[in-house]
Amino acid sequence: MIKHFSFVHRGYYHYRYSLPNTDTLNNGFLSLKNYLENLHKICPNEYFQSGPRSSQLKFNLNVDKLEIKGHEISQLAKKAIETNGNTHTNIQVFFLNNDKKTIASEIPIWFEPHEIKESDYSLNTDKPLTGHIDLLRKEDNKIWVWDYKPNAEKEKYASTQIYFYTLMLSKRTNIPLKYFRCGYFNEKIAYVFKPENGRLH
Question: How far apart are CA 13 and CA 62, in angstroms?
Fold first, then answer.
């Protein structure tokens, strides 16, 4: 069963999560389960109406990315595209319906203004940082933050975007970065990295 909520965040965002797959979040991930189940009540929607978004951050993150051709997530994306087409929504819904590792899609995430100032990163803003994570998967007892990029091979700042997604989710759930992994992908290739090794130039 898929739960579905729509948010108007300068446009419509359709947040979905799989009830059976979310139920696999136990042990150290109960706070993530609670976050996902209560987002429709706790999301500060006003934060998403202005201010910077993680997808707009245009600076490089110094991480050791691993390039993987034919990754499991790329194979799933290929099936999704062949079945439903290559829009973000179609791919997200396919994953939720056909992949037991996929927990949720289009997940709203944010940093409070004071959290940005207290962090090691200067974003030159007094407004919240926000974003929407394409896909969350639980793989080998790690939470993977994934973003679908049709032109993944040409992306310059995708690592920075997904790194900040993960920082924000870590902050919202109090789950340490060492339990997260990051990646972006298309139907041919995936790029993955460990967020705890992230450094800004």
Answer: 30
